[in-house]
Design goal:
The protein is mainly beta. It has one domain: Jelly Rolls. It contains no helices and 22 strands. The strands form four sheets. Strands 1-20-17-22-15-13-14 form a seven-stranded mixed sheet, with no helix packed on it. Strands 2-3-4-11-6-9-12 form a seven-stranded antiparallel sheet, with no helix packed on it. It has a four-stranded antiparallel sheet with strand order 5-10-7-8, with no helix packed on it. It is globular. The model has no long low-confidence stretch (mean pLDDT 92).
């Protein structure tokens, strides 16, 4: 097994802004937070952990090029966009937008008293000027308890595949993304562990890869309770922490365990 390198991204070291209506932490440079050491990681450009107070939210604003998805942890978030989509997102929902050549949207918490807690993630696609698209898919707690549930994977045809649930993706029952990035969600109960097998290169990106099967991973522990230990490096991540994992190759395995007495939720990104 190749020796992996793990560099923790501690929660308190993240960028932070408390605007009253929004309490947000940034893994990468975003808005008024800038650190040249943390600009992006592979195609992963933004990983914000947001808490939006009741009866507030993000007003109508534009996006281009990036693919953006929201992983809802608790509360409710109303989405409206220039494609005509309107829906209220709840725990378990993953809302995915291909901004492509340009869209506008708003994200608001219209609940009378509950805060909405969600992860906002931006991914850079391999192609510019994609057709804008939108899809929402629900992933139940039962399906991601003590297992790594794939929620996002690359389209088999990455050129300009439509963003809808019927399009063919590398992994079944996942939302498609236009780059070599897989996302897994998991809630680990106390004392439980899971093993991740590093993905193989996307079939349409082999010419762009290094040819030696090199991959990279990013692990983000939701800022709630519990902790995750990366067994292979004896590294423990607390709530809100993340970790850059490099020097890994396709089909290499990574064991993750929960050493605490509380359940813990996390996302794992596996990318070229």
């Amino acid at each position: 097994m190749a020796a992996l390198t793990v560099v923790p991204r501690r929660s308190k070291a993240r960028g932070h802004a408390d605007l009253g209506w929004l309490n947000t932490y940034h893994t990468f440079s975003f808005a008024d937070y800038y650190d040249p050491q943390f600009m992006e990681f592979g195609p992963l450009r933004v990983l914000n952990e947001d808490r939006v107070k009741a009866k507030t939210g993000f007003g109508k604003h534009p996006h281009r090029e990036y693919e953006i998805f929201s992983y809802i942890l608790s509360g409710e978030l109303e989405h409206r966009d220039s494609l005509g989509n309107v829906e209220i997102l709840k725990r378990g929902d993953v809302q995915f937008t291909t901004a492509g050549s340009g869209i506008t949207h708003s994200e608001k918490n219209d609940h009378p008293n509950k805060t909405c807690h969600f992860l906002q993630i931006w991914v850079k696609p391999d192609f510019a000027y994609l057709d804008p698209g939108y899809v929402t898919q629900t992933f139940s707690d039962a399906n991601k308890t003590n297992r790594l549930l794939p929620i996002v994977s690359p389209y088999l045809d990455t050129t300009n595949a439509p963003t809808d649930a019927s399009s063919t993706t590398v992994l079944d029952n996942t939302i498609g993304v236009h780059t070599d990035l897989f996302t897994f969600a998991c809630t680990l109960e106390p004392g439980q562990s899971v093993v991740h097998s590093v993905q193989s290169a996307h079939p349409n990106r082999k010419a762009k890869s290094s040819g030696n099967g090199a991959r990279r991973l990013y692990l983000h522990v939701v800022d709630q309770t519990g902790a995750i230990t990366i067994v292979d490096s004896n590294t423990t991540l607390q709530a809100g922490d993340g970790a850059f994992v490099t020097e890994v190759k396709s089909r290499q395995t990574l064991e993750l365990s929960n050493p605490t007495s509380e359940k813990v939720e996390f996302l794992l990104f596996d990318m070229a």
